[in-house]
Structures are given as structure tokens and as C-alpha cells.
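Progress report, Aim 2. The chain analyzed during this reporting quarter is listed below.
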Amino acid sequence: MPAEDTRAHSRTRSDRLTPWGWRRATVRAGLCLLTTLLACGLIGIGATSASGVVQVFSFILGVLGGASAASAAIVLTRRIWPLLPTVLATWFCMAMIGLSSLWYLADHGTRITTTVVSTSCEHAKGGGLACTARLRRPDGSLIGDPVAVDDRPDPGEHVDVVEDPAGLLAPRLGDHVDPADIPVIRVLLIVSIGLLVALWGVFGVVGERTRSSKAAACSARHGSPA
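Predicted C-alpha cells for the chain:
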């Protein structure tokens, strides 16, 4: 009976992190968090790039990035349950950073009225048509890549577009860049980052407690008589 009490007290003590354990958990979780946020930022911005090749490459990296973050969480915690929340939270953050390009365009973009040169449509997987249009600026130059449009405008029609003066972000239709939506985008971006911070904080503590418990159990086995 006393031996059972001793083991129970040992398990209780192993569940409590020492100051060094807290520091170690903070460093590990912090490094994983910073890496995840950096990847989310690069991939989210790349998905809204003015280059179609960069967009496709960013979507592929986004899938791999979510899987890599989940793998790191599983290794850190030595548990399988972080898989789904890590993937979803990482993709959510990537999407919100990509959506924040509207925030940038609303503040710094140049709104111009373009002329439709040609349109191209194809059937979307979810039904309906997905259309893009080649657009000409007022100075006569063409916008590099086709711009996604809501319907199929005829050649010669005028379409309002917001461009990035630096040319890094893809142009957006003027109707899609609404300053009234910016507060909502800001809140969603903060929520997505806060969710990742909370998750990696939990993963760091869980991982350190798992290591402490296993170390205590190993010490108990080696210290007890055969």
C-alpha cells in the first residue's frame, strides 16, 4: 500500500514542470510557432502574388506546410491528437494572411478603370463558370496575367480594378476591395494568429510533461529492485 502512494506522488510530481522545464517548453514551442508563422506569411502572400506560377507553387507549399506543422506538433507532444487542429489552424492563418492583401490594396492600391480585351471561362468544380479577363489599362498597356471576374464581360466593357503599385500582388476587382471589410479582416487575422499561439503553447506544455513523466517512470524502474 505505501508503495502505491509513493508511485502516485511520483506521478503527481512528474506532471509539474520545473522552472527549467517551463523554459524548455517555451523555447521549443516558440521556435515551432515562429517557423509556422513565417511559413504562413510567405505562403499566404505568395498565394496572392501577381505571378500565376508563384500562386500555384504557394498552394502546393500550403498543403505541405500544414502537414509539416502537424508533424512537428506530433513529434513535440508525442501524441496524435494535435494533427487535425494544427493543420486547420495553419491553413486558416495562411488564408487570413492571403486575405489581408485586400487590406493592403484598400490602403495603398491604385484604382483604375480598365477595358476588357478578351475573356475566358471554364466550368468550375462546384458548378457554374470561372471566368478570367485580359484587361487593358487607360495608358494602353495590358495587365500581365488574366484577372478573375465575377461574370463574363464582353470585350470593350469597362471594369474597375485595384492594382498594387509595387506589382507584387495580383490585381483585384474594385468591387472586391471594400474598405468596410477591412475591420473584419483584421479581426480574423488576429484570431488566426492567436489560435496558433495558443495551440503551440499547449503543445509545448504537453510535450514537456510527457517527457518528464517518461523520465520519472524510467528512473523509478531503474531505481526499484528487480
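Confidence is low (pLDDT under 50) at residues 1-14. DSSP finds five helices and five strands in the chain. These observations will guide the mutagenesis work planned for the next reporting period.
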